[in-house]
Amino acid sequence: MADRQQKGSFKEKKPPMELIHYSYARVGLMGNPSDGYYGKTISFLISNFFVRLTLIPNHSTENSIISFLKNGNSNNDCNLSFDSLNSLVEMSKNKGYDKENCLLQATCKTTNLILSVEKDELNISAGLQDRVIQVYGGLVYMDFNKDQMTKHGFGIYEKLDINLLPKGLWIAYELNHSDSGEIHTDVRKRYESGDQKVIDAMKQFISFTEQARNILIHKNETKRRDLAELMNKNFDLRREIFGDQILGLWNGDDDDDPAILTNAEKLKNELVKKEIRFCWLIPQ
Q: Where are the bilayer-spanning segments (predicted)?
């Protein structure tokens, strides 16, 4: 009898009123962009930037509205809104990869499914690295060797202790950056046509990643210096195969004033003048 129901007895559970998911920003620490070329990478999530997606049951026949606030600023006039997930996908096709894709990733936490949507539906040249780290979280060493990928369709993923990362990592980023899907297009064609320079570069990225894993796990006193040197080599190689036109002319090197990289205040001022922002990274 309902009026004699005792504490702890079965009660019908009501469905949740809303579902909330977060998609955090990711950092390709080493090996990028070899994930799309049977390479190896190390990535981790940061909590500095994220997309929050809230799903609320809609019992009406009217379309729901999904809104995206650029840079999380409600006063920004570049807000994006979608009347359905289908519209979100269509806008991704028309407006590009970066912003709308964050919402798609927050909605669907499955690496290969995310990648297949991007490659097959949106025609984006991409690899698994970003999808893996946003699903696994933390700090992950990824091996996308051809034999493994051909047989299984996914890589070998090793989750590392996030505390292995050296303290004081920071990132500089352009406010008006390019679409990374477009960036990969030319290199992808060169790789598939057998361009030896690109093929050799991908092998070198693998070596950088293996060295970085060893540094993170086994080194202490020289970890920051050794990892920084590898990060510079990784970027220099990316610049060599992609070019300054793609990566940006200003990349942290300053021939007129080499000491700028050791002067934090001077570097900060230079970044601001070039409309580049920076922040300390907070691993998620």
A: none
